[in-house]
Amino acid sequence: MMTQRTLDQLEAALDVVRNDLSPRVEELAERSTDGELTTEESHEYAEIVRLNDMLGLLKLRAEALRTVRAVS
């Protein structure tokens, strides 16, 4: 089972990854809206969106585990 410390570290790591990607995501989103993405950028943007979805699910899982531990 994960400890509270492990859950906190996982959540902090997920936040760091999101923050690191944020400027690039904003740039790609703007270029996408303007219809200016290259094929390579389009693939990059899709991959970042997929990664963001996965990170969101991991964060929800960590929060659910934290809730279960708090109730136990």
List keywords for this structure.
2 helices
What does this structure look like?
The chain is mainly α and 72 residues long. It has one domain (4-71). 88% of the residues lie in helices and 0% in strands. The chain has two helices and no strands. The longest helix has 33 residues, at 39-71. The radius of gyration is 16 Å and the shape is elongated. It starts with a helix and ends with a helix. The relative contact order is 0.15. The mean pLDDT is 85.
- Measured between the Cα atoms of the first and last residue, the distance is 13 Å
Helix-strand pattern: HH
The rounded Rg comes to 16 Å
Biggest sheet character: none
Q: Please work out how many helical segments DSSP would assign.
A: 2
**Class based on secondary structure composition and strand pairing:** mainly alpha
Tell me which oligomeric state these chains represent.
Answer: single chain
Unreliable stretches (pLDDT < 50, length at least 5) are: none
The helicity comes to over 70%
